[in-house]
Automatic annotation (TrEMBL):
GO MF term list: ribose-5-phosphate isomerase activity
Annotated source species: Apiotrichum porosum
GO cellular component, one term: cytoplasm
Taxonomic classification: Eukaryota, Fungi, Dikarya, Basidiomycota, Agaricomycotina
Enzyme type, top EC level: isomerase
Protein's UniProt name: Ribose-5-phosphate isomerase
Length: 260
């Protein structure tokens, strides 16, 4: 059956997710990390399409409340990060990816758990629509780098980020008075930095991480094996570690490893 029609950005998210699952989640993969955001439901969707037999012996670890619900709602086996020290593969979304596969993540305030699972995974892969495909971080994603901080320390961290050249703001709730509180009970600061600093994201990541009170930084540097971007023309751009870029003309309606 052909894929159901979707608005262009949603269709692009679905394409990236389907292509990444088809390439990176094989029948022998038993421990799988599920990231956060609005692209990841399509990852779970494609995994379910691989069939009940494929998924019977698998365990899925979530990066937060949202992905935990996705795993449960899909009828997949839920695992806890306490039970494992490695994953076969983890697929996650991204807010922006640069030409070296460094990424800004944490638009959904999940960057701590996302980074722990990325660290654990033998293969960590990002999925996103074409708007996230960039050369320098901060070009398309203007909101800033999400930084998870201990609530007690937030004012001091804000001041230190300003001294470092950043423009930080405390992320406020949309349907809640007061700041956003992460799944870990932390606050989130979003900080923009001048392009010169954004061009060296690994250095910036280390500098921010060293601020007392910072729990995790939404810069993911040197972690990804590949990033998949769904395009408006129904193709998928795959950028792999080492700089190889591949255009995937189309994604099949059914996953190649589908089982009964
Ligand atoms: O890092 C994240 C959440 O903390 C998400 O993966 C990121 O915000 C991308 O989300 P989306 O797929 O909705 O664009």
């Amino acid at each position: 059956m052909p894929l159901s029609p979707l608005p262009p950005v949603e269709a692009a998210k679905r394409l990236s997710a389907y292509a990444a699952v088809d390439r990176h989640i094989a029948l022998e993969h038993k421990l799988i990390g599920i990231g956060s955001g609005s692209t990841v439901p399509y990852v779970v969707d494609r995994i379910v399409q691989q069939g009940a037999a494929a998924n019977a012996g698998r365990t899925f670890l979530p990066t937060g409340f949202q992905s935990k619900q996705l795993i449960i709602d899909a009828g997949l086996n839920l695992g806890d990060v306490d039970q494992y020290t490695r994953l076969d593969v983890c697929i996650d979304g991204a807010d922006e990816v640069d030409s070296d596969l460094n990424a800004i993540k944490g638009g959904g305030a999940c960057q701590l758990r996302e980074k722990v699972l990325a660290d654990m995974a033998d293969t960590w892969v990002m999925v996103a629509d074409y708007r996230k495909n960039s050369t320098v971080l901060g070009t398309n994603w203007k909101q800033g780098i999400p930084i998870e901080v201990a609530p007690f320390a937030y004012a001091q961290v804000l001041a230190t980020l300003v001294k470092m050249g950043g423009t930080p703001t405390l992320r406020m709730g949309k349907a809640k008075a007061g700041p956003v509180v992460s799944d870990n009970g932390m606050f989130i600061i979003d900080a923009t930095f001048p392009e010169a600093q954004m061009k060296a994201p690994a250095k910036l990541n280390t500098e921010i991480k060293l601020i007392t009170g910072v729990v995790e930084v939404g810069l993911f540097c040197g972690m990804a094996k590949a990033a998949y971007f769904g395009n408006e023309d129904a193709s998928v751009t795959c950028r792999a570690v080492g700089g190889k870029v591949e255009q995937i003309a189309s994604v099949p309606d059914v996953p190649p490893v589908a089982s009964a």
